[in-house]
Each structure stands twice: as C-alpha cells, then as structure tokens.
Specification:
The chain is an alpha+beta fold. It has four helices and ten strands, in the order E-H-E-E-E-H-H-E-E-H-E-E-E-E. The protein has one domain: Alpha-Beta Plaits. The protein has helices at about 25-35, 70-80, 80-90, 130-145; strands at about 10-20, 45-50, 60-65, 65-70, 95-105, 115-125, 150-160, 165-170, 180-190, 200.
C-alpha cells in the first residue's frame, strides 16, 4: 500500500446474512456467472468473493465479499454505480464496513489460487498509544504473512471503534483453526493487485 502515488488504500467488506435454510447454490451460481465482471475494475486491488455456510459449521449462512482498493475513487465508483446496485436489488442494502489500510503483504503461496480466507478482529486497548499499538501490529502482520500457505494478507484499522482487522487468503482449503472467522473463497478478482505494494501504508 505504501507504493501508491497519491491515495491511501482502503478496505471494504459487505456482509449479507442469509436465512438458515437459504440455498447457497444461488450464491455460488451468482459468483460463477458475475464474478468476472470486476476482474478489470479500475482502482480495485482485489476482491475476494466469500461465503460461510451452516453446513460447514458456521453459525450463519453469509455472503461476505471483501475488497482492497488502491484508491478511494475506485471504491466510490463501485458503491455508487451499477455493480453495487445489483447487490442491493437482489439482497437489499447490506451493511458495508470500511477500514483504513495499514499494511499489505504477499505470502509464500502468492502464486496459488486461494481456497480459504480468514478474518480476525482485535480491539486496540486504551492503555497503549494508538501509534505504538499500530506499529506493533504491523510488525506482527509482516511475520504472520510469511507463514506457509499464505497467499496474501492485509491489516487495517477502524479508528471509530479502535479495532484492528487482519484478513488473510490461504492456498489450502482449510486455514489454521485459530485464525478467526473462516470463509470459503469462490472467486478472486485482482485487477490492480500489483499496485497494493508491500509493507506499511504510511
């Protein structure tokens, strides 16, 4: 992220909770037929099309795409354009969470297609100055991204709730058990992945 010339990279995630008896094949078909539409979207570093399913042990059925943007203009063009409106038309307007990017790293398995993604949220306690806490988290993130099976990993922060978000793509179908929320990756769009750079974003 620190290699971007003008803009700060951002992360965005939309979560659509689905009924317990929802036919998840509808989501898989949707991604299979429409996922490629963002494969060349300007300003998009990557989008992971993610699902969690009750039949796999998840507490909910959920469609939860995750985006890394190389520039806020790209995110705005998507949110206020026909792509996001298609989601609204089909599922209603989902909650969209938005974080400031702190660090991005390619992992040892960067050439592999990811099968699993994990998301871990960690509160930033008040006892440590924010700058120190973030610097410590970024250093830890760089080490974690070097683990076997990591395709790519991003670290971001929500300064409203003072919460860190670690998002990791894994080459294996089964990510380590202690990595937080687990998702299946149905498709990965990476139009400007190379522009995400490496290391911290300031």
């Amino acid at each position: 992220m620190d290699s971007l010339p003008d803009d700060e990279a951002t992360c965005k995630g939309a979560q659509t909770a689905l009924p317990a008896d929802y036919d998840m094949e509808i989501i898989r078909e949707r991604v299979a037929t429409r996922g490629h539409l963002l494969d060349s979207f300007p300003g998009l570093g990557l989008k992971a099309y993610l699902v969690r399913e009750r039949e796999d042990g998840s507490p909910v059925n959920q469609y939860a795409p995750f985006y890394l943007w190389t520039a806020p203009e790209g995110m705005n063009a998507f949110l206020w354009g026909p792509g996001f409106q298609g989601i609204v038309n089909d599922f209603g307007r989902p909650a969209v969470r938005h974080w400031a990017g702190l660090s991005y790293e390619e992992g040892p398995a960067s050439a592999s297609a990811p099968g699993t993604a994990t998301r871990r949220r960690t509160p930033l306690g008040e006892a440590v100055p924010p700058g120190e806490a973030v610097a410590h988290a970024v250093a830890g993130h760089a080490r974690e991204a070097r683990r076997d099976g990591v395709v790519a990993s991003a670290l971001a922060v929500d300064p409203h709730h003072w919460e860190l978000l670690s998002f990791t793509l894994w080459a294996d179908a089964e990510a380590p058990a202690d990595e937080g929320e687990r998702f299946r990756v149905l498709h990965l769009s990476t139009p400007e992945r190379a522009r995400l750079g490496a290391g911290r974003s300031w």
